[in-house]
Amino acid sequence: MSDLPLLTWSLVLAALVLGILAGHFGWGKRWPGSLSKLHPDYLTGLDYLVSEQPDRALDMFLKLMDANAETIETHFALGSLYRRRGEVDRAIRIHQNLLARKELAPEHREQALLALAQDYLRAGVLDRAEGLFQQVSEVPRLRASALDALRGVYERQHDWQQALVAYRQLARIKAAPARTVAAHYLCELASVAIERGDIVVARELLSQAREEALPFPRAALLGAQIAEREAQMDLAVKLLRQALTESPALLQEELPHLLKLVGPAERDAILGELVAQTELRDFDELKRLVFAAIAADLGSAAPLRASIEKVFSQDPTLQAVWQEGPTQSERIAQEIGALLAQAEKYRCNECGFSGRNFYWHCPACHSWDSFEAYAIVKLR
């Protein structure tokens, strides 16, 4: 069974090359009598594939296929297949082989440059990918693809200023992603400004971020960070509450921080307001608030008692624990809180990457705003 994927890949590759050569030499209508016309090197290449010598097979197929109008798409198809399989070195060889041909048509040369840049990006060779994408971005028909890929390169390099420049260029040709992406770039730049103590610049960048997207809870969080640094606690509390209202997914991350900035009396008032807000939404929002509060060791807070009872008695996972009785609610909440402290609290809804920390930008698939709060609690 372990050989099946390699065998399947070999057959797909062989069928692809054979199909293109058949079309090129007109074998479709007279196939039985055409096998004798197969070049011996082609059969040798197939033998290399079956015997698990893909590099030799690739050398043989590249030797056989001249880069003309009838076979050029075979090169691109092979390169794309290799790249998707993670065999980037072979994809690079194919596209470099194309670019080495002097007779290659200009449009095919441009396409090969784009494909080679994608190979380098997949391989993590970001400097080479960047240079090629910049070159291809001058080609009108490939400009959008190249600029979007270049934007991704700058994201991985954390070069947020250049990422924003690429975004603006995409916006001018109406090919940009959602404006929240630009807002995130501005917030990344604002975070850098805050770290170096340049608060005036940070505030201007956050203002620009809010112009791109509103509501935008990340800008509110960074604004709260600035206010707290400058001992403007009332403003920090206001901005934190605004962020939690705009994005309940931040509760697990920011609720403890918010409650540290206020006194005990105001704490209960804030928790009461949050309970009222979540009950107007849905059960999942209430569950999220309860888990965030328990994780912050607030299971005994008076405004949360009814909500905790509701969540524990109605949630299918927690019902078994709750059967011990509401009189044990405080102890159960403490135990759940200890489990939550070790649980994976967040998950990317694009790729499924999960972890204990919240990310605005998924480290696995590089999606923005894709993290959602969740927790898997394994109960004994």
Question: Which short descriptors sum up this protein?
Answer:
disordered C terminus; 2 domains; Serine Threonine Protein Phosphatase 5, Tetratricopeptide repeat; 3 strands; mainly alpha; 380 residues; three-stranded antiparallel β-sheet; elongated; 2% strand; 19 helices
Count of individual beta strands: 3
The coarse silhouette is elongated
- Cα-atom Rg, whole angstroms? 29 Å
Reported CATH architecture of the largest domain: Alpha Horseshoe
Number of alpha- plus pi-helical segments: 19
Mean pLDDT over the full residue set = 81
Low-confidence stretches: 23-38, 376-380
Largest sheet: 3 strands, antiparallel
| CATH class membership of the largest domain | Mainly Alpha
Query: First CA to last CA: what distance?
Result: 37 Å
- Helical content (DSSP H or I, runs of 4+): 55-70%
Strand arrangement, major sheet: 2-1-3
Strand content: under 5%
Series of H and E elements: HHHHHHHHHHHHHHHHHHHEEE
CATH names the topology of the largest domain as: Serine Threonine Protein Phosphatase 5, Tetratricopeptide repeat
- SS-based class: mainly alpha
